[in-house]
Design goal:
- The protein has two domains: 105 residues, no CATH class; 88 residues, no CATH class.
- It has seven helices and seven strands.
- The strands form two sheets. It has a five-stranded mixed beta sheet.
- The two termini are 36 Å apart.
Length: 207
Amino acid sequence: MLEQIDQNLDALTFDLGSAVVLDDATFRLLIPDYYNIVGEMTLNGVDVHFADGSPDLERFGAERCETGDEKWRLKVVVGAGRPELTRWDVVLAKVDGPDESEVVEFNRLNDEMLDLLQAGEIELDREALPSAGVPGEQILAILDAPKDTSGDLWFHLFVLVEEATATVPRHHVAAYERWSDLARAKIASHLLVYLTPNYFPTTGCRP
């Protein structure tokens, strides 16, 4: 995906300007490559600005707030319901979901990881779980369920592993990483990254 963005930015025959505005959406919590998309734009000399009030301003700083001078908006869409693009829109990357065999493999690994979790082989910091927010709450609920009925086991466990609240045994790390790769592909099913003209620029951020 990032290679697509790099290649398509290189192929542009017009000037994007010094910055684009990334449409604010909750998808950043669901797509592990969200910040990589921002980084790839920056590496190609295009600064990414955010809407007034965006949580990303806390990460990147108030100076990255939109100014109203940006000519293009950067959009990321996930899911089968891709928008109908106009001739003015510019596709930077398009990723399809996993094939049937990968879905079968993901489900098998999902069951395997659930078994490891419920058997206690994936170590959990029980004292830290209550303060881990929604992921901690969901993992505790999954522990008491006969199977993962939420479908969100990977996302919640991924957050806990990244925060060192959960530890995967060394001899299961390869399976966990493969499961993670498939989960990312599943989450990013029908991922579309594109630019659209900024027809209605704002006046910028509040002081």
